Amino acid sequence: MSSESPGPAAAFASVAVGEFGDDLTPTGRRVTRRRQRTRERLMEAGFEVFAERGLSATIEEVCERAGYTRGAFYSNFRTTEELFFALYERLAAATLARAREAVSMARDAVGQAQSGGDVVEAAVEEFLSLAMSPDDRSWWLLSSEYALHAARDPEFAERLAVLRKRLQDELDHFIVSALAQAGLSATIQPEKLSRVLTALHMGALSQSFEDPDGPTYQELLRLALPFVIRGLTEPRSGGWHEPGQG
Amino acid sequence: MSSESPGPAAAFASVAVGEFGDDLTPTGRRVTRRRQRTRERLMEAGFEVFAERGLSATIEEVCERAGYTRGAFYSNFRTTEELFFALYERLAAATLARAREAVSMARDAVGQAQSGGDVVEAAVEEFLSLAMSPDDRSWWLLSSEYALHAARDPEFAERLAVLRKRLQDELDHFIVSALAQAGLSATIQPEKLSRVLTALHMGALSQSFEDPDGPTYQELLRLALPFVIRGLTEPRSGGWHEPGQG
DNA sequence: TGTATTAGATACGGCAATGTATCGAATGGC
DNA sequence: GCCATTCGATACATTGCCGTATCTAATACA
Fold first, then answer.
1. Interfacial B residues in 35-74 facing A (CB < 8 Å)
2. What is the fold, at CATH topology level, of the domain defined by A9-85?
3. Which residue in A10, A187, A230, B213 has a CA-CA distance of 20 to 30 Å to A178?
4. Could you read off the pLDDT of B26-71 as tens digits, one per residue?
């Protein structure tokens, strides 16, 4: 009989974030293919429902979507916020995946344009030729939701910052190598270039969704991206030099 | 005795949006300095509370902040969403005001740099020297909230689109004349330039708030803005020519 | 100043979502 | 195939918020 425990769910809550290797429960061992399965389905449902209805979505809504009842939820998470937080890894993974995909397209284009025309222009163009995935709207909605929630809940913000940094680092590294493959190197701190590009990306994304009649995401980036890239990179001489470092 | 009415509040709800001139109530005349006053205070409270707690804020929270009880609220609005919507005008006004203020600073700088160095660089620099107002965070929060809510509620989106367009037009016009005063003219459709700049602005704003340890808003814009402006404007020859128009 | 009317406060009833406590069913080890 | 255990469903009490229906105090006009 649970006498002092704050509910068994607490211990599992952070599993999805990767805190634990896996497979441990308060009392001992014995976990559970079934559990993983329902966690998975709850998270999938959470993704959909949060995208549709935001963080004010109900626990019951999530459960219904997943095909469970509230009992299953409370056995796996403490609150909707907990589930929401656990979902961040998906957002990060999807972001990276899309970036990789888009850049690999661009890379091919660069190979061809290398000899002939403008490398940057060609790369950007190919990058943008990727139609945005239908999921992008959902991802954008979720991103905004994360930002808002973090802005209002310091504790959540703190936890999120850790994950966010992980993603940011991967993106930084990735962008640098992508540029390198295009024969370019940043003339400012690569992380800053990465932030500038991210800002541009997010701004264009937001605007295209907020005003469906306005310019598309592609159009906006097509207009701005080449100038920014050319302005902040150079043709692969030495790259960025740490200022004040001998 | 109200027999068929859906509540007296309905008729007033749209006043703040400027649908009606003012001063009309279901039964006849007789409105009301007092009413305006409380509307004002409710909206002010709404601004604060929505920024702090988002659209899931409670009617009671708003009323408490304003120093009223729920009775006052229902006498003026139907739902929190109604109040939220009415607040958009404030957002628009603040946006324009800030833009004007910032550009008027930049204008002065241009006057001085005209003869000497780089006009664009000087203007951007001065534009950015304006410290962001402490309210900016609240405005950003609210903007995101509008975007999210509109993305999820088509009806709200439709109503909002009207107001948004109004603001957009003002911004467009404003940016064009600001550029002109700096001796520049757009080489693409001015509205598109306006959107690009807005996207950049919003992206930088978001990022600076989402990641307080990262580059500031100013830093991000300082890095990107000059290249975009130079890329999409020219030194005031003729300006943009409608394509396919003789 | 007196009176008609309106703004806002107070007092319900109702509902939707929550969290817990308990129970039956599925699962994995033997 | 049996048993120990855990997972998820069900039942229940509770709470918070909403919207309406009155009621009282403030306001405009005579």
1. 52-56
2. Arc Repressor Mutant, subunit A (1.10.10)
3. B213
4. 444 456 788 999 999 999 999 999 999 999 999 999 999 999 999 9
